[in-house]
Amino acid sequence: MVRVLCIVLLTTAAFAAPAGESGWVSESGLFRVTYRSALDPIVINRIHSWVLHIEDAHRMPVSGAALSVTGGMPAHDHGLPTAPRVTREIAPGDYVLEGLRFHMGGQWELEITISADDRQDVVIIPLEL
Amino acid sequence: MKRLFRNLLLVFLVGVAAYVAWIYRPVSPAPWNDTDLELLRSLSITSLPPLPADASNAVADNADAAIMGNRLFFDTRLSANGEVSCATCHQPDLDFTDGLPKGRGIGESKRSTRSISGSAYSPWQYWDGRRDSLWSQALSPLEDPQEHGSNRMYIVRLVTTESVYRGMYQSLFGQPPDFSDTTRFPVAAAPVDDPELASAWAVMNAADRHTVNTVYANTGKTIAAFERTVLPQATRFDDYVEAVLDADNKQQNALFSKDEILGLQLFIGAARCTECHNGPLLTNNEFHNTAVLAYPGELPDRGRIDGVREVLGNEFNCLGKYSDDPDRRCDELLYVRRGPELIGATRTPTLRNVSRTGPYMHKGQLATLQEVLQHYNRAPDAMIGHNEATPLGLSRPQLARLEAFLRTLAEPSAR
């Protein structure tokens, strides 16, 4: 019985938190974000870049968006050790995010504010290191 | 009434005895789990990656440059009174520190001397990260009136005229410039606070100043090449981790006492040391405010908030014209963090050799490891900014075990 309950809960959790390939949906559902890290696996104390891929609700790439990135460790009440920035769009919907570094193991969050076509939304990407 | 008092006293004494017995109860270390093993491996010296390249320094990994830098490092002629070298404060026998609260050259430095060992792995130098490479850092004490008290004009003349240095310089960087014309190149000049040195520097023409700066930067680059060879050695801790990963129980017990194992378990667990003292160098080289008291008689140290401004304005930084990297790959500087979190923050030091490198903290405010551990256990409010740490609530025996573990991080013999 317990095992069945665990399987049900785990399955629910897997669908409730879209992650990995399917990406993270912004708070109002306007955008979906996935990323590829140039440093794989991501380890602490090394500065590196990501490519963020932004799609709209119809899974179409979003070009010409303005992106700003903040983040930190909620449990430690501190921000990122660097000030990462999106520097360019290299393909439709693909944006280079440079200057990321994480300096502790634990639960991190990146908060990405996306502005495109007069619409703005925020997506939070969790990261366990 | 008297009996009631006696009974209460008895209950109190039994309670105290039980509490003390509980605090000092014999404890056995729990076996390491998979998460622990991964963390232990990450702290071991075997996880130390190859030295990161320094594209801003073309001779960073040149053996001849390291020989020249080694000679300069120990040369007291690089000071105003002829008595101070880099090694005056960075003493090899003390893991390249000096055992003092603040460095002592010609006068007293602003802060404590940090070890050079493994510093090539850090994107930032100094407690406040006011330099972003070993070579730009090496240039700074030479002109600090409290440290070497020299000036760049004197230094470049020495390096380009003294026969040994001149030959070494020429083979590394080509024909040295001719500084013999004292109407163009004064005896002493530097862009520093000293009015005489500053005015002598100000009247030089821009091209000559650039020539001097180029030789000065190259001098720093050879010192950096030497410093890159100063690396941490395996310790008893590293041997213990190897034995744990090999599941060699006999060797584990031969290497670590029960208290040292318990101390290590606290180090990676309840004491939360690895939040900042992580990786094989046991530092994240990042800036944190941990509410260390101001040095007696001084205002609290502003730390990184000032250091970040200084490094961005430093002419020898990664983005400056004396960098050898044509692509100016300076991500740490380009994406440097600013803001109030940096007030009173200083850079995490390595814990390798920590038992040999007291007194501790950025101005040697805490004399012993015991005091340092008590400080983190209490986590007081910061005088300026915000203390990132929170109280640990560890008992006295637990702090003693942590200290026992920290002592296993000493290298087996002096260099």
Describe the protein's architecture and organization.
The complex is a heterodimer of chains A (129) and B (415). Chain A has one domain: Immunoglobulin-like (Sandwich). Helix content of chain A is 12%, strand content 48%. Chain A has one helix spanning 2-16, and strands spanning 24-25, 31-37, 48-56, 66-73, 78-79, 85-91, 94-100, 107-116, 119-128. In chain A, strand 6 and strand 7 (94-100) form a beta hairpin. Chain A starts with a helix and ends with a strand. Chain B is mainly α. Chain B contains 16 helices and two strands. Chain B has helices at 2-23, 34-43, 63-73, 86-89, 134-143, 152-161, 163-173, 195-202, 206-227, 236-245, 249-255, 258-268, 304-313, 331-334, 369-378, 396-406; strands spanning 287-288, 346-347. Chain B has a two-stranded antiparallel ribbon. The longest helix of chain B is centred in the first third of the chain and has 22 residues, at 2-23. In chain B, 45% of the residues are buried. The chains are: A mainly beta (129), B mainly alpha (415). Chains A and B meet through strand 5 of A and helix 14 of B.
Strand order of the largest sheet of chain B: 1-2
End-to-end Cα distance of chain A, whole Å, is 33 Å
Quote the beta fraction of chain B.
under 5%
What's the order of the H and E elements of chain A?
Answer: HEEEEEEEEE
Question: Structural class per helix/strand content of chain A?
Answer: mainly beta
Mean pLDDT of chain B: 95
